[in-house]
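Priority: medium. Attachment 1 of 2:
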């Protein structure tokens, strides 16, 4: 049997059905590693919330209001007895000032809660946040002011002309240095 990483890959000439052929195409939670990853994320986010509560010297009861749940329920969630849902996680992050992008990078991608405060993760999350903002603006129409097409064409023409002039100067300088 092939390894888990290649369980669905077969030679084109191999026509014998495998055990994996009976699995649903979009069943991503089929192997032990996927189950571990899912559980690890919940555990990691829970650890991050608990460590942030400690860092801010706040009791568990601090999250009762923002989460809209009883103290005993919040305590069970943070101890791992109850599931930390996405809704609860987002509310806890908001109440504690946890950056969800940094948390996602540290927990879901890197599997290391301690990296949440690392400077590299802060920079990465800032770049990623800018990227998300750009995607959002593109989805909303990219240009938020009413701009006439003629103005857009003129701006594009001037930008292209500037780039061409710069490129010509670069070529002239290279030629004079080599010549």
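Attachment 2 of 2:
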């Amino acid at each position: 049997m092939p390894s888990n990483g290649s369980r669905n890959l077969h030679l084109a000439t191999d026509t014998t059905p495998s055990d994996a052929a009976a699995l649903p195409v979009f069943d991503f939670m089929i192997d032990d590693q996927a189950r571990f990853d899912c559980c690890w994320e919940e555990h990691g986010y829970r650890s991050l919330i608990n460590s942030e509560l400690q860092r801010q010297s706040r009791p568990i009861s601090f999250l009762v209001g923002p989460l809209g749940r009883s103290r005993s329920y919040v305590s069970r969630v943070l101890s791992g007895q109850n599931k930390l849902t996405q809704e609860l996680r987002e509310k806890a992050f908001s109440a504690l000032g946890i950056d969800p992008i940094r948390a996602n990078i540290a927990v879901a991608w890197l599997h290391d809660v301690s990296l949440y405060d690392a400077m590299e993760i802060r920079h990465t999350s800032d770049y990623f946040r800018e990227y998300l903002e750009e995607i959002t603006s593109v989805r909303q129409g990219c240009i938020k002011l009413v701009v006439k097409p003629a103005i857009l064409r003129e701006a594009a023409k001037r930008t292209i002309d500037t780039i061409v002039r710069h490129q010509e100067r670069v070529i002239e300088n290279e030629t004079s240095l080599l010549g």
